[in-house]
Amino acid sequence: MSPKRKRRLLLAALQELAESNLPANAAEDLLEIIMRRYERASTILTSNRPLDDWPKLFGDTPAVAALLDRLMHHSHLIEIRGKSYRLHEHSLAARNQKAKVTA
């Protein structure tokens, strides 16, 4: 492959977005990534924070509005409610362990 030829990532997955404190320029950096991929390649983004919280998490900047606009256009939003699957598995394992001890 020629050094001038750029490789294109067909699918990018950004997981657990906004799980911790974000730097001040996070919205601009994420917007840059999304803009480069917008209508060119697929992006999967996961977060346990609702979209309504994003302006508070990233700072209420124009970049957040632009970011959400591009993310929601042509997107499939899947909202999962209820207990975490990991917590559910942990609860089952704890109950099984307790049943073994008391038996």
In short:
The protein has 103 residues and is mostly helical.
Would you write up a description of this structure?
Helix 1 runs parallel beside helix 3. It is elongated and about 65 Å long. Helix content is 45%, strand content 8%. Helix 1 (26-37) links the parallel strand 1 and strand 2 (42-45). The protein has 4 helices and 2 strands; from the N terminus they run E-H-E-H-H-H. The model has no long low-confidence stretch (mean pLDDT 82). The chain has a two-stranded parallel sheet.
| Rg measurement, Å | 19 Å
Spans of 5+ residues with little confidence (pLDDT < 50)? none
In percent, how much strand structure appears in the residues?
5-15%
Residue-averaged pLDDT: 82
The CATH superfamily turns out to be P-loop containing nucleotide triphosphate hydrolases
Structural class: mainly alpha
Counted up, domains total 1
- Main beta-sheet strand count, sense and barrel state: 2 strands, parallel
Distance N to C terminus: 65 Å
Global morphology: elongated
> Helix coverage percent of residues?
40-55%
Order of strands side by side in the largest beta sheet? 1-2
| CATH topology tier name | Rossmann fold
CATH architecture: 3-Layer(aba) Sandwich
Order of helices and strands: EHEHHH
How would you describe this structure in keywords?
103 residues, mainly alpha, Rossmann fold, two-stranded parallel sheet
Layout of helices and strands:
Elements: E1 11-14, H1 26-37, E2 42-45, H2 54-58, H3 62-72, H4 85-102
